[in-house]
Design a protein that fits this description.
isoprene biosynthesis; 303 residues; two-stranded antiparallel sheet; binds geranylgeranyl diphosphate; metal ion binding; Farnesyl Diphosphate Synthase
Length: 303
């Protein structure tokens, strides 16, 4: 564990995580009530309420509260992040993309509801995300609400997640350089984590300098998230070897450990935590503790 000025004996991060995740889950359920036409709402709720770590909403709420905003101001944005994340998983799992059968320990959306409904559930969650921020953000100036919507749009579209996905698909079976791998990861994964933090800060009332510091923090944490994912893929694969061949070893997908070696990938992860933490040092340490612990949690998670 890195020693740090953000460790406070009376801050219980586990308790913080559990409490905030409960609130996010409740808000997500309220945002997507079961109604007519039930088929689409069942599919939306099935994927949205299937568990998941809720990292993006938690980053959004923590950034808002760090800059002095109320949790409630960021809740619609926090939910929107999870709606977009969930829809990207639904579409990523489709037969025309990764063709996966399982997600979050359950059958994927298209396995449970059929392909047409899975595509539409993704479409509905994507559009609802933007509507939800616009319609339900309270006590925040319209200018800040618009900034949050623009931030999310640019993180998700053809300069964001979609860009990462199309480049990833195009690179299949190709030799991928470290720069190309970083492009894919930054766009597929880091952009949405960045939007989560920036939207939280913006609706929380942050000044421009704070927004940019938190953006830098989020870029490091976003890349860290994917580097750790790649490392877990390798370590989990070798643990499972003997039972079934690990996924990463079975495919020839480019990952950080493959391109730079496992030890260097672990070093890189440490450097990213240090850089993220450095950006937080400009803020009050007590208030920045949640974002510090979230970075630490992302670095040390086991799934
Ligand atoms: C977003 C418009 C739009 C289209 C989708 C399919 C696609 C374009 C992009 C794929 C994006 C993708 C699947 C990125 C991987 C993201 C990632 C690291 C997922 C794992 O996230 P966790 O570990 O999962 O936070 P849980 O289940 O905990 O939420």
């Amino acid at each position: 564990k890195p020693q740090s000025s953000f460790l406070f004996p009376d801050f219980d991060f586990k308790e913080y995580l559990a409490t905030k995740a409960d609130k996010v889950n409740q808000a997500l359920s309220d945002a997507v009530p079961l109604q007519h036409p039930t088929k689409i709402y069942e599919a939306m709720r099935y994927s949205l309420l299937a568990g998941g770590k809720r990292v993006r909403p938690l980053l959004c709420l923590a950034a808002c509260e760090l800059v002095g905003g109320e949790e409630a101001a960021a809740m619609p944005s926090a939910c929107a992040m999870e709606m977009v994340h969930t829809m990207s998983l639904i579409h990523d799992d489709l037969p025309c993309m990764d063709n996966d059968d399982l997600r979050r320990g359950r059958p994927t959306s298209h396995k449970a509801f059929g392909e047409e409904t899975a595509v539409l559930a993704g479409d509905a969650l994507l559009t609802l995300a933007f509507e939800h921020i616009a319609a339900n953000t309270r006590n925040v100036s319209p200018e800040r609400v618009v900034r949050a919507i623009v931030e999310l749009g640019s993180a998700v579209g053809s300069q964001g997640l979609v860009a990462g996905q199309i480049v990833d698909i195009a690179s299949e079976g190709q030799r991928v350089s470290l720069d190309e791998l970083e492009y894919i990861h930054v766009h597929k994964t880091a952009k949405l984590l960045e939007a989560a933090v920036v939207c939280g800060a913006v609706v929380g009332g942050a000044d421009d300098i704070s927004v940019e510091r938190l953006r830098k923090y989020a870029r490091c944490v976003g890349l860290l998230f994917q580097v750790v994912d790649d490392i877990l893929d390798v370590t989990k694969s070798s643990e499972e070897l003997g039972k079934t061949a690990g996924k990463d070893l079975a495919s020839d997908k480019a990952t950080y450990p493959r391109l730079m070696g496992l030890d260097r990938a672990k070093e890189f992860a440490k450097e990213l935590v240090a850089k993220a933490t450095e950006e937080l040092s400009y803020f009050d340490a007590t208030k920045a503790a949640p974002l510090f612990h979230l970075a630490d949690y992302i670095a040390h998670r086991q799934n």
